[in-house]
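Notes from the pairing session

We agreed to fold both candidates in a single pass and log them together. This is the raw record for the first candidate, unedited. Please don't reformat it; downstream parsing expects exactly this layout.

Candidate A
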Amino acid sequence: MHTIEQGVFADPWSTQDFSDCVASDALFLVAETGDTIAGYVVALDAADEGEILNLAVAPAGRRNGLGRALVEEILEALAARGVRQVYLEVRESNAPARALYAAHGFREVGRRNQYYRRPVEDAIVLRRDA
């Protein structure tokens, strides 16, 4: 997962970030192609709210429905835990991710100014109600 993270994000998570999620009982879903990790999604839940923290698909696995499948699976897993609202942040310029989330019922509910560092960019806060 760390290799994909480093390859697809300008400001990637560190191995410590992944370790912290494991320690916090985050949900991890991993998609494999053969013996290779092709993508993953990480989410947290508390009470009836959830948050998708990270989603990445390796370049070789893009444009074949893998991202869509990961979103659908994590939404089902969160719903099974009683989550009624799911939040996430996405770079303002990330049109493919924004379209993916919109197709799953996420709507813009806010903005975090200069949230991302490399490059500096606003985050769009999205929410999906169950």
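Candidate B (folded immediately after A)
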Amino acid sequence: MISRRPCRADAEPTPSRPADNGWVIDVEPERFEEMVVAALDGLPEDLGRLMRNVAVTVEHGPGPRGLLGLYQGVPLTSRTTQYAGVLPDRITIYRLAICAICRTEDEVADQVRRTVIHEVAHHFGIGDARLRELGW
């Protein structure tokens, strides 16, 4: 279920009240997770097969200020023969942060896709500067 709730322009953003965009779309957690799965399934098969030791999770809170997603781990390009016995890398997608900047479910789905691609790129060792050059 998708609902919209007004967000007062004069109110400070809080975890329960994201930044104002006129209307904040509220995508249910299960639907949002489906969007993340669809974004991952939409990756080219060759890339999916190359992803190693990485977990993708959804944080239903707002997350750190200014972030829609976060990659934590050792990029594939930095792994050596000494890379063993480590916890999986983690990609976190922040539901409320994404919902706060979108007005429609289609915008949320598009932003989820863009955020997943951005964080997966970090897993492959592509930095923010190069992603900006590529339009991501």
